[in-house]
Amino acid sequence: MAEYNVIFYPQALSVRVQEGTILLDACAKCNITINNLCGGDGICGRCKMIVKSGKVKGEGTSQLNREEIKAGYVLACQVTVQSDLVVDIPWGTWAKEKLIANEDAQRFSYLSKGSSYAKNYEIKPIVLKLYMELEKPTLANVTSDLQLVCDKVREVLKIPSMQTGLKIIKNISKILRKYDYKVTVTLGLRRQIAEIMNLEGGDTVDKNYMIIVDMGTSTVVAHLVNANNTETMDGKACFNSQGVYGREVTGRIIRAEKVGTDELQRLLVEDINKLIEGLCSNNNINLQDITAVVCAGNTVMTHFLLGLSAEHIRRTPYTPVSLIPPPLRAVEVGIGINPRGLLYALPCISGWVGSDLTAGILATEMHKHDKLCLLVDIGTNGEIILGNKDWLIASSASAGPALEGASVECGVRAESGAIEKVYVEDGEIKFKTIHDKPAIGICGSGIIDIVSVLLDQKIINRSGKFIQGSHEGIFTRNGISHFILVDSKNDRTKKSIYFSEKDLENVIVAKAAIFAAIRILLKRLELSYSEINKIYLGGAFGNYIDIDSAINIGLIPPLPKEKIEFVGNTAIKGAKLTASYQEAFHEIADIHTNTTYYDLMGADDYVEEFRKAMFLPHTDINFWREE
Amino acid sequence: MAEYNVIFYPQALSVRVQEGTILLDACAKCNITINNLCGGDGICGRCKMIVKSGKVKGEGTSQLNREEIKAGYVLACQVTVQSDLVVDIPWGTWAKEKLIANEDAQRFSYLSKGSSYAKNYEIKPIVLKLYMELEKPTLANVTSDLQLVCDKVREVLKIPSMQTGLKIIKNISKILRKYDYKVTVTLGLRRQIAEIMNLEGGDTVDKNYMIIVDMGTSTVVAHLVNANNTETMDGKACFNSQGVYGREVTGRIIRAEKVGTDELQRLLVEDINKLIEGLCSNNNINLQDITAVVCAGNTVMTHFLLGLSAEHIRRTPYTPVSLIPPPLRAVEVGIGINPRGLLYALPCISGWVGSDLTAGILATEMHKHDKLCLLVDIGTNGEIILGNKDWLIASSASAGPALEGASVECGVRAESGAIEKVYVEDGEIKFKTIHDKPAIGICGSGIIDIVSVLLDQKIINRSGKFIQGSHEGIFTRNGISHFILVDSKNDRTKKSIYFSEKDLENVIVAKAAIFAAIRILLKRLELSYSEINKIYLGGAFGNYIDIDSAINIGLIPPLPKEKIEFVGNTAIKGAKLTASYQEAFHEIADIHTNTTYYDLMGADDYVEEFRKAMFLPHTDINFWREE
Questions:
Q1: How far are the Cα atoms of A154, A415, B237, B377 from residue B346, in angstroms, in the given order?
Q2: Based on the domain organization, do B290 and B333 belong to the same domain?
Q3: A91: closest CA of chain B, how far (Å)
């Protein structure tokens, strides 16, 4: 098959691809991040590019108007390369380069330095270094070099079972004698097994660092932790490069079936590697001294990390390949730390409830609470955990991406210039953008705010319809009502930003999905919401939500504010605990085992509950109180 | 450094080597087996070769006479290559080709077909195949593909802990669906852990074979075992190709320090591979269906198998790298079976008491006996185990190679034409050779016999001196008395074979070393030999010894014959048990743990006991009875 050269401007990057390659895939190969949302389904219309020379082939699309088509505009996800190409990527399409975008992503790294997670556990990290001065063997003390080391480890750690690989064994004799039996052994600990991962001469105990990763669908966050004292030293984040293959995991699974899981794995691993390299160079740490990487994330990200096919997760009965992946060598997936360093992906609960939630349970300690707790992670999928020390039940509601800024016409992810807050001041509807930059769109927290404000201001009604004439900001286009926040007519340098009745519908669908899921779990257990002692709002997104707005639109039950807690990035917190304390390492496995997954697709009354929740805040204003 | 070409005739094999390479090493690289005994120390004089053209460099040697030197004879172990060479290897030097020699080795394979080792154990081989028809996942039964398989294994085997590698996990989903959830899982079992080694579609349970190897210093024996019923199907043996680097392990360790442990490993692994290939092709079995190789052998062979340096085993305090090597993939050392197939080297007791003895204890069941048992393995090192169900003590006596036919002038290993039996019939001293071929020398069992016969016939006295005039077969050369068995003067087609006072001295040293070791162990435990309920004579060699001769010269205590048992190749027997039964797998680890090694170098009275034993059968004819 013929191969062609494609050059992208203004980046001036080129790539050689086979005839028939989708233009967006060619772009991805150049590592150019596109601001698209739908993952190549031709729906979002955000991958517009201009073909300056050469031939492409593709279907018609309603996302481009006549003028654009005449000017050479194409949707990169809908056309294939048929000759050498020169392609212009307009500003709006690539928007920000990965580098700039990653600075925005930093707000997800939620860095709280210091070892704040010590609890009552004894520090015993997943990878432990022990310095030992061994007694030299004598005729009276018959032992092997390996035994000498193992016996000392057993004595110190009280661990009965030891494992070692041939490579370690091959070098043990030389190292012992060269360093006069004064050596540092690196141990991978899990349950009753200690694996000798490395043996070095002298005392290198102080050089033992871990990387904790939250593999978010949109944002990848990495923290650097000193394994010896559990102290968080630094944090970094970037937008998940898999974004080029779709904003949602479902889109990425579909693309992985075409381009191969390896490609999705490569993008994620490269992101993690870049974060690790950045953390190391910022803190003058050698990559060799990173002995473990502990990752939390949804089940699909976990699959991609390990190069496992996620195809069956998107099809009923949503079967993952593995929920409890074994600890591996990081090098097995291409993560560049110490060659013998460990990679541990935390256990997931089901195909749609990932290890970010297992970590969340661990971090909130709801698995130790006497009273009823609810953990809600709001995203494209709303994940819900209900329970206490005796039982835990998990569910996942397919909310759609509205609450994350997608499927909302002016929705953007949480980046510089995104409207993150909408409020009323002096009777006027105002907003605040991230970094106070000129507004480029509305992100998740802003979307929840705007719905709440429009409802309070009686600009929309409880059924999600605009009340015509209620506000001068309302206008109608193509028969659909819109509320304008920024009007380019007033200031030509600005971009028009509005919120439509169609957007509102998507938001209501999202909140109804989550709301109905909470209701179903409570019903199954014959509990009422008032019995909930604590609501934890988790996930990277949770921290930025306004609680009043969320309650006002019916996203979360109307509990007193002191019972609602933002818990920040519990994926990172939980993963950090697991990495630092053997007790937590055991607990998270128990959490996996003891959490029952309840699939809403199997619930007869889910549709009814969902329908009832399609109002603001819900069917009956006193709904919660009816119970 | 310059490189030269060396051609060996009559094999017509050539090799390119660096200037200064020892000629014997060049020969080894061509895989030509030399009949040498001393391993390159220039002592045995059996690596004579004729340099037809080219230059070599070397020291003078007393092993070559003037005529030989004039004719171009060299000792291959004592000269280095200094130019391109053409070398003739005389018949007597290479004697038999490897192929023919290996036929001789077959007598060591002691094949007893059938599953004679069943005992009361339940058959559960080290690598087990399970065919499973799994229930397909449903919405109500949330599980991962991996969990589905693991749960079934746990259910069937009652094993709590499972391990799997990423490669298996990556393929599990495809295989389950392609084969409609009907699959065969291959499991590596050890203690409370089952490792998924492979997953195949359909039922392949009947294709599960194991190879059991006895890595003898001189002979490598391999048996083919059906893992499903423990049946021994076939056996093969060859002489250990490491022989080119020395007959004794000490010589090989020294050479390994020069040529590298890898080279020693390569030779042993190639031998094992050839045996496996032969067994597979003879029995129409695919190499892929060999799932495990279980090896027993002395500690040095175990080190060479794994590529571990044995250098510290030959120096006080004789520290091995590892006595309990972890189970590995066979491919890690280059053994060509199923790529995921297991290699398990049985646990050794000390640097000088190997896993052939641990296997021997298991096979004889002396670790379960109420009464006192003694296991003696006669070889270059005499290994001795004393004990019962409550305690086991092990020791190793450096006997020297006399009892194996080396350090005896006309000594040969047990090959066709070796004198294996010497006896008196009608007042005449007669002998029998292996395969009744013309006599080429005397092997171990023959050597013990001849000493016993010479003693009985009063041709030698109890101090090991020849009684001049006692027999017409006595002649003197260079001031040393000899007894002639075959005289070439009588028949020019025959080779002269004799036994000298010097040879006798070496034999007495060997028997004294073993005898003194037994004495010391009994003394330490304040036991007398009469309390021994059973003597097991083990090792490949043991089977061919005449008990009366052995008692007569004082090699073993004079117990009633029914208390002395030849146990054959207990290394193979024990390894087979370990491979076939999990109980035995656990027991052999316990035997390792519970056996105390007593080092004779640390015994003040060893020299005295040794000196006392330098008589036939010992200092006092009533020695044993004195106790």
A1: 22, 61, 19, 17
A2: yes
A3: 40
Locate B184 and state its tokens: 């065969």
Which CATH number fits the domain that encloses residue A299?
A: 3.30.420.480
pLDDT single digits (tens) B284-302: 999 999 999 999 999 999 9
Whether A609 and A539 share a structural domain: yes
Q: Which of A171, A201, A231 is the last residue of a domain?
A: A201
pLDDT of B141: 79
Q: For residue A562, how many other CB atoms are within 10 A of its CB?
A: 7
The secondary structure of chain B in percent helix, strand, coil, rounded to multiples of 5, reads 35, 25, 35
Contact A145 B324 (CB under 8 A): no
Please report which confidence band the pLDDT of residue B623 belongs to, taking 50, 70 and 90 as the band edges.
Answer: low
Sheet holding A474-477, edge to edge: A474-477, A480-486, A497-500
Q: Indicate which of B166, B181, B314 best probes the interface with A, i.e. most A CBs within 10 Å of its own CB.
A: B166
Q: Give per-residue pLDDT as tens, B368-398.
A: 999 999 999 987 788 999 999 999 999 999 8
At B224 the three-state DSSP class reads: strand
Cβ distance of A166 and B139 shorter than 8 Å: no
Tell me the count of A-B CB pairs closer than 8 A: 138
Please check whether residues A265 and A288 belong to one and the same domain.
Answer: yes
Per the CB < 8 A criterion, the answer to whether A338 and A184 are in contact is no
What the block records as the tokens of A271 is 């992101």
Residue B573 within a domain: yes
User: Domain for residue B116, yes or no?
Assistant: no
Per the DSSP assignment, residues forming a β-bridge with B474 are B483
Query: Do residues B515 and B601 share a domain?
Result: yes
In-domain check, residue B89: yes
Please judge whether B145 and A312 are an interchain contact, meaning their C-beta atoms are less than 8 angstroms apart. yes
Do A217 and A333 lie in a common domain? yes
| Last residue of one domain, picked from the residues A74, A95, A116 | A95
| ipTM for the whole complex | 0.83
Considering Cα of A572, then A576, then A578, then A584, what sign does the dihedral take? negative
Burial of A554 from C-beta contacts in 10 A (0-12 / 13-18 / 19+) = buried
Query: What pTM, to 2 d.p., does this model score?
Result: 0.84
Output the domain CATH number for residue B149.
3.10.20.880
Cα–Cα distance, B128 to B204 (Å, whole number): 11
Shared domain for B512 and B620, answered yes or no, is yes
Residues B563 and B521 in one domain: yes
Domain that holds residue A139: 127-201
> How confident is the model at residue B416, as a pLDDT?
84
Tokens 């009275």 — which residue? Answer: B605
Beta strands across the sheet bearing B441-442: B428-433, B418-425, B441-442
| Residue B263 falls inside a structural domain | yes
DSSP type of residue B461: -
> In B, which residues are within 8 Å of A145 by CB distance?
312, 319-322
Q: Judge if B287 and B272 occupy the same domain.
A: yes
**What's residue B80's pLDDT?**
93
> What is the Cα–Cα distance from B280 to B288, expressed in whole angstroms?
10
Q: Who's near A38: CB < 8 A, 6+ residues apart?
A: A44, A46, A77, A246, A247, A251, A406
> Could you give the number of structural domains in chain A?
5
Distance CA B483, CA B363 (A): 40
Contact A395, A600 (CB under 8 A): yes
Contact A350, B168 (CB under 8 A): no
